[in-house]
UniProtKB/TrEMBL annotation:
Organism: Auraticoccus monumenti
GO cellular component: plasma membrane
Alphabetized Pfam families for the sequence: WS_DGAT_C (PF06974), WS_DGAT_cat (PF03007)
Keywords: Acyltransferase, Glycerol metabolism, Lipid biosynthesis, Lipid metabolism, Transferase
GO molecular function: diacylglycerol O-acyltransferase activity
EC number: 2.3.1.20
Keyword RNA-binding found: no
Name by which UniProt lists this protein: Diacylglycerol O-acyltransferase
Superkingdom, taxonomy of origin: Bacteria
Amino acid sequence: MADRLTATEDALLALDTAHHPNHVGAVDVFAPGPRGFDLARLAALVEDRLAYVPRYRMRLRHVPLNLAAPVWVDDEDFDLSYHVRASALPRPGSPEQLREFVGRVMARRLDHSRPLWEMYLVEGLAEDRFAVITKSHQLLVDGHDHVDIGQVLLDEVPDAGGLAAPGWEPRPEPTAVDLLVQTAVETVADPLRAVVGLRRGVTAALGTVVTVGEALGGGVGTAVGALAEDLMTGARPPADSPLTGVVGEQRRFASVVVPLSALKTLRVAHQCTINDVVLAVLTGALRSWLQARGQTSLPSTLTACVPMSVIDEDGAPSSLGSRVAPHLMRLPVGEPNALMRLHQVSHGTKAHKDTGLAVGARTITDIAGFAPTTLHSLGVRVAGQVVRRQHDLLITNVPGPQHPMHVDDARLVASYPVLPLGAGHILTIGVTSYDGEVFVGLNGDRDRVRDLDVLAQCVEEALAELAATVEQARTTRAPRRRRPRGEQPAG
């Protein structure tokens, strides 16, 4: 039988609109190898690796009369050239031009009649570099059987070549009768699961949750109504949040890179974690940015949804069975002292670590391939399920491998995550550490966040402000000089 979307996945699909496209992106910049790189080479590599991400050759098929959630079917007309595309910037393309292009690409909703992903080769960057931009719908990635294509596209060594993947033959698509029979069987086996998956019910829920409950009636109607209400309103920012607003169809992207060594110095000096430092830097940046926007009265805190990897009871933490759980963090943007902000953030993250379920950065980086692309997608997915608990923004921070990765013979030199905007949220922040650097991707509503470049600058300034506390920490912890015997204290 065909794999059917779960109730939550069906709701995520219904919530994928022109204003809120539900795809997760990555902007990877490469330094070319001796042979150069072009669209044909990228397409050949992607075709070779598609066997390891089967959903990238599948599309969603709707059940007649929308009697149940859609199912995954092989796309018999799969066209790789539709999904892997080429573009170019006027040489030499500047970082600003690339960011503008990224914003336009990420604003466009994926075509639901095809496999839910796109990839762009962008040539013309300075120093003969090129970028690969990927867009993958949240439904393609679950972290267990299905990972992001970015995880299987990159290799630790250049010229890794093909992976001897088996050939692909699409399975015959089920007929309308097949789908109706499967729906009937599932309804008998599990009536609640079948009805909760109704596309019509979830879609109607977008207009009014009450209507869904009344239409379905009883406990089933209550379940569907609660699910839709949770996904629509549970993750919205508070009404008085400075990061709330009506989100349009266009996006604006900004990026910043900082040395990982600077964060490690702060980690050692203040006896905390890299994640603590990242969140403290972002807190300081948000504080300065809001002040620059004329925010006369800063809130004492902003609540960020910060997904973290936790141990899966059914699998090893270094496997694809690793799970990501939402964790709400209060970012003390109202605190003027950088060191106090770090201490408060560190105290907040410690509550999560004390559960004993947190997975360390080293364990995450042991996952095969370039795992950040998958983990960012999982982070976005769980953030959408933070039910009945409001937060101001989403921040994902994923450690990547600290050694070079390659596509063909080209070396990856930068990797910026691009997270989608949830309902009512005008800003998301993704962070990836890789090969000695930390890459921050900022995605915002184009009209509501016209000064996104200022926030990127504030990230650098907040890091410098926090770095100035290192000497203070060393002085505070410096051992007192032992007074020689017989020496009297001064005064």
